[in-house]
Every structure is written in C-alpha cells, then in structure tokens.
C-alpha cells in the first residue's frame, strides 16, 4: 500500500499524469483534425474547385490542431499569455535569422489572398511553363509539360511577372507568315481568311486579325492572328499552319527562304562570273589523281 | 417533294447487321455485334442538301478505312433509340444586314440551326453517340474576350421571311420574336439562340421546328426578358410531334439575361 502511494506521489512530482494527458490530447486532436478535414470535403460546397478544397482542408486541420495544442500546453501548466509574449520576441529573432523563409511566408500569404491563379491552372513564370500542383506557404509547385517538378519560391512569384494561361476561356494564336515580294497581298489575305473560315476550331468571333508587319529582308512579313477555345489552342495552331501551307501551294504563293544578294556597289563593275566546263562535271572523279598531283 | 419514312425513333438491328444514316456522303453507321456496338463516323466538310436516308448493310467492308469507336455492353439485345437533337451550345445567327427595330415594334425572325445525331440504348439515359451532322464552327459571344460564352457559328442565317429559309433534313427552324419596349431603336447584328434549352418538334412533312423564343428589350434597364414558349410553334404542316427534349432544363421557361448576352 505504501509502495503504491509513493509511486503515485513520485509520478505526480514528475508530472507524468499531466504529460500523458497532454500527449493524449495531442494524439486525439491530430486524428480529430485529420478526420474533420477529410469529412468537410464530403460536403459538396457549391463552386469549390480543387484549390478551394485544399485551402478548406488545411484551414480545418490546422484550426483544430492548434486549439488542441493550446489545450495540451494548458494541461502542462503553461500560461498561454506568457507563451504568446515569448513567441512575439522569438519571432523577431527568428525573423532576422531566417529572412528568406519569412519573406517567402509573407509572400505566400499575399499570394493566397490575391489568388492570381489556383491549383490546376497553367502558368508561365520566367521561362518555366507548367501546371500548378500546389500552392504552399513557402513555395508554389509546378509540373512542367516535359514532366518535371519545379518548386518556385513565393518571394520570386511576387517579384516576377506570372502569366496565367488558363484564366480566360478563349486564346489567340499569332501565326507568323512570310510571302515572296512578287505575291499579291490582297489575294494572300483572302486565302488566309478562307482557311480560317474552313477550320471549325477557329472562332468566327472575335474575327481573325491580319497584320502586315512590314518588308523583311527576304519576305513580306504577315501576322495572322486566330482565336480558339483554350483547349484547342495547339491543335488550331498546328492545323492552321498545315492548311495555310496547302492553300499557298495550291495557289502558287511562294513562302521564301532567306535570300542573299551580292552587290559590288555603284563604283565598280558587276563581278564577272564565268563557268568553264570542258568535260561534264559529273564525269570528273572527285579524287582526281592527276589534278591533285599537279597541285 | 416526296419524303422518306422517319429516320429517327426506335431501331432494332439483327446480330452483325449494319445500319447506315446517310446525308449525301456524310455517313454514320452502327453495327450490332454480340457484346458491342461499333460506330463509324464519316465526316464531310461541306453541307449536303439531300435528305437523310437509312440503309442496311451486311458487311463493313465499305467502312474499313474509317475511324470507328467500340462501345462494350453485357448484351446488345436492347433496342436503340435514334433521335435528332439541337446543338449542345448556343448558336450565333446573323441577319444579312443589321436590323433596326423601332421603339414599340416587334419583329419575327427565323433561324435555322444544325442538328446532332443522338443514339441511346432504350433503357439507359446516357447517350452512346452524340455527334453533329455538320460540325459548325466555334465562336464566342460576349461583350469582351474576358466575359461571354462559347457558341457555334456559321451555316446559320437569321431571316425575316420564312420562305427564304431552305428546309433541310439536318436543320431545325426556330421562330424568334423580338419586342422592343425601350424608347431607343434596337440594333440587331447578331442573335444568340439558346439552342440547349429548346425542344425539338417535327411536323407532318418531317421538317424540324423548335419552340418559339421571345426576347423583350425592356425600357427600365439593360435586362432582356427571354421567354421560351412551352407550346410547339404554330408553323409547319399539320400537327407537331415532340422529337427530343431540351438538353438543359430552364426554370419556368422564363429567365432574365443581360441584353448583351442575347443580342449584339
């Protein structure tokens, strides 16, 4: 009997009860938070995309878990106001020590509030284009189209230009086309308009745009801009180029390759070029022994 | 013009039989195998003026070079139901030139829109085939490239005279009544026809019609009242038969949309 009493008093001295109670609260709290965050997704909220679902799950999980953590700390006898005060001072110290992480964290909060894109959007940051797979406090994770995992720190997301490719339902494809100087530009404009009309993926409205960019070194440069449904963007671009090439070939419109004209100037006479071929060129062996010996 | 018998309705196929729905060279073929339905789809770029005909084939040799899709089921003894149905997106129609409707006036326009070929198993709700006879071009209808909706365009005209509309086997005609109750003249360059909300009817001459659409331009604000007449249109020859329900159900056949989303 005495032994039991002494063991209990020892356990009380070592705060075993309080510690195990706090641990129990933490463990139960973890599971409750986990179950609650999964259960809340079962409720079908209207207009909640994958991004919203992740945010909601995190909010529920961390909300419950932090409450449980506080009650566990209270069980252990900590005064919360003192802890929060200490945390304030500590955060200043930590802030100085981990400036980059803190800046990423703050940027992450701003990014979540501003919501320039959400999960499953396709974005372009610098030279990287990919699908957003998660938006976290410190970084945004992308999956590029060649299936690489890219982690972009939130700080650089805030600082640099981010282009969201999947914001609007329609997109414009700018086709760069060059035609020879001898061609009739109006005829080319008509052919391009016909190609766009025949392509069912090309939107009738907004109308395709024909821009004469100017006279290039070897060709008259044209920009032909066509609109499509966002999902058909690449298909439209590919089919339009193919159909334009076919239509140009059919109407004998030349797509020139770079030309190089050699001109010796006004003062000198044109460079004389004479060809002498006593034997047919093809009949001459490449490794002609006699000629190479002469050399 | 002599009409052939209906190409839609319940269809039963013998084992290995092929049925072909032809609109000129545009063909859709369905074959019944023991545990699968095989569908061939031969598309065409240009519109045919011929009627839709149904023929039976014993072998699939004529379709050997065409792409096909296979739909597996536990048994193919269920009969199939073929029906024409209206487009799955709104259709943008244009009058030949822009129309000015004076205040207090109302006009009636006719819009001809393309039909889709829908195949369902008799006991199942989900369609196996839902393809257009002639795919219209994509288009966009809205005040800007940021807001608006995807629709179909091309091959669609809005006419003031019904006689000017050529009746074709793969198109349906919608009467549109536009009422201008505003104090300003209403200028119409484009009309957004809410095809997914319309029911499809056929008259005794097998011409397709849809419910009448009524668009009212109110004076008090920019809202336009869009009303879909629940009854079949009083046009065509003889009695109207309901062929297919609307793809989407509108509430109370009366919903208010912004004038910019209906007329442009």
Which key phrases capture this entry?
heterodimer; A: 295 residues; alpha+beta; Helix Hairpins; SH3 type barrels; Alpha-Beta Plaits; five-stranded antiparallel beta sheet; three-stranded antiparallel beta sheet; 8 strands; disordered C terminus; B: 264 residues; mainly beta; 14-stranded mixed beta sheet
Descriptive account of the structure:
Chain A has helices at residues 2-13, 16-42, 50-75, 80-97, 99-114, 154-159, 185-198, 233-250, 289-294; strands spanning 122-125, 128-135, 139-144, 149-153, 162-164, 170-179, 209-215, 220-229. The model of chain A is unreliable at 288-295 (pLDDT under 50). In chain A, strand 1 (122-125) and strand 2 (128-135) form a beta hairpin. Chain A is of the alpha+beta class. Chain A has 9 helices and 8 strands. In chain A, helix 2 runs antiparallel to helix 3. The termini of chain A are far apart. Chain A has 3 domains: 7-97, Orthogonal Bundle (Helix Hairpins), CATH 1.10.287; 112-164, SH3 type barrels (Roll), CATH 2.30.30; 170-250, Alpha-Beta Plaits (2-Layer Sandwich), CATH 3.30.70.100. With 264 residues, chain B is mostly beta strands. Chain B has 2 domains: 9-83, no CATH class; 88-114 and 135-261, no CATH class. Helix content of chain B is 0%, strand content 47%. Chain B is built from no helices and 23 strands. Chain B has strands at residues 9-11, 18-23, 26-32, 36-42, 53-57, 68-72, 80-86, 91-95, 99-101, 106-121, 127-132, 137-141, 149-153, 157-159, 171-180, 186-188, 191-193, 200-202, 208-210, 213-217, 223-228, 241-244, 254-258. In chain B, the strands form 4 sheets. In chain B, strands 1, 7, 8, 10, 11, 14, 15, 17, 18, 19, 20, 21, 22 and 23 form a 14-stranded mixed β-sheet that branches. In chain B, strands 5-2-3-4-6 form a 5-stranded antiparallel β-sheet, with no helix packed on it. Chain B has a two-stranded antiparallel sheet with strand order 9-16. In chain B, 35% of the residues are buried. Chains A and B meet through strand 8 of A and strand 12 of B.
């Amino acid at each position: 009997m005495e032994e039991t009493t002494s063991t209990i008093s020892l356990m009380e001295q070592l705060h075993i009860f309080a510690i195990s109670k706090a641990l129990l609260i933490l463990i139960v709290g973890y599971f409750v938070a986990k179950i609650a965050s999964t259960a809340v997704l079962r409720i079908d909220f209207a207009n909640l995309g994958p991004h919203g679902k992740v945010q909601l799950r995190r909010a529920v999980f961390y909300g419950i878990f932090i409450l449980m953590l506080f009650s566990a700390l209270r069980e252990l006898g900590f005064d919360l106001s003192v802890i929060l005060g200490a945390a304030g001072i500590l955060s200043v110290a930590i802030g100085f020590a981990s400036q980059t992480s803190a800046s990423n964290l703050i940027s992450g909060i701003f990014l979540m509030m501003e919501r320039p894109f959400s999960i499953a959007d396709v974005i372009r940051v610098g030279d990287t284009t990919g699908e957003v797979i998660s938006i976290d406090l410190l970084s945004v994770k992308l999956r590029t189209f060649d299936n690489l995992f890219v982690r972009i720190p939130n700080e650089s997301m805030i600082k640099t230009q981010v282009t969201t490719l999947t914001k609007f339902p329609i997109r414009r494809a700018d086709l760069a086309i060059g035609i020879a100087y001898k061609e009739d530009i109006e005829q080319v404009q008509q052919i391009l308009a016909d190609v766009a009309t025949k392509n069912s993926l090309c939107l009738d409205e907004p109308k395709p745009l024909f821009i004469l960019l100017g006279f290039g070194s070897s060709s008259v440069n044209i920009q032909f801009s066509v609109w499509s449904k966002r999902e058909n963007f690449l298909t439209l671009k590919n089919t339009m180029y193919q159909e334009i090439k076919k239509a140009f070939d059919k109407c004998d419109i030349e797509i020139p390759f770079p030309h190089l004209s050699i001109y010796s100037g006004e003062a000198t006479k044109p460079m004389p070029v004479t060809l002498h071929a006593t034997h047919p060129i093809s009949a001459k062996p490449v490794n002609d022994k006699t000629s190479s010996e002469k050399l | 013009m002599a009409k052939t018998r209906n190409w839609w309705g319940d269809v039963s196929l013998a084992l290995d039989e092929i049925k072909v729905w032809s609109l000129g060279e545009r063909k859709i073929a369905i074959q019944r195998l023991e545990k699968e339905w095989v569908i061939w789809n031969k598309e065409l770029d240009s519109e045919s003026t011929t009627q839709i005909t149904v023929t039976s084939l014993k072998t699939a040799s004529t379709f050997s070079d065409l792409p096909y899709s296979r739909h597996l089921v536990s048994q193919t003894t269920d009969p199939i139901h073929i029906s024409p149905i209206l487009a799955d997106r709104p259709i943008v129609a244009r009058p030949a030139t822009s129309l000015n409707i004076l205040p207090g006036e109302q006009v009636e326009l006719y819009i001809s829109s393309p039909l889709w070929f829908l195949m369902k198993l008799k006991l199942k709700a989900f369609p196996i085939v839902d393809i257009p006879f002639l795919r219209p071009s994509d288009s966009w209808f809205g005040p800007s490239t940021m807001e608006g909706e995807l629709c179909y365009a091309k091959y669609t005209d809005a006419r003031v005279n019904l006689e000017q509309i050529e009746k074709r086997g793969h198109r349906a005609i919608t009467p549109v009544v536009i009422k201008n109750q505003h104090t300003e003249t209403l200028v119409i360059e484009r009309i957004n026809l809410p095809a997914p909300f319309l029911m499809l009817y056929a008259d005794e001459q097998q011409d397709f019609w849809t419910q009448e659409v009524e668009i009212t331009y109110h004076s008090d604000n920019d809202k336009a009242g869009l009303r879909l007449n629940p009854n079949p249109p009083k046009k065509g020859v003889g009695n109207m038969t309901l062929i297919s329900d609307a793809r989407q159900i509108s509430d109370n056949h009366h919903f208010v949309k912004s004038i910019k989303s209906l007329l442009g």
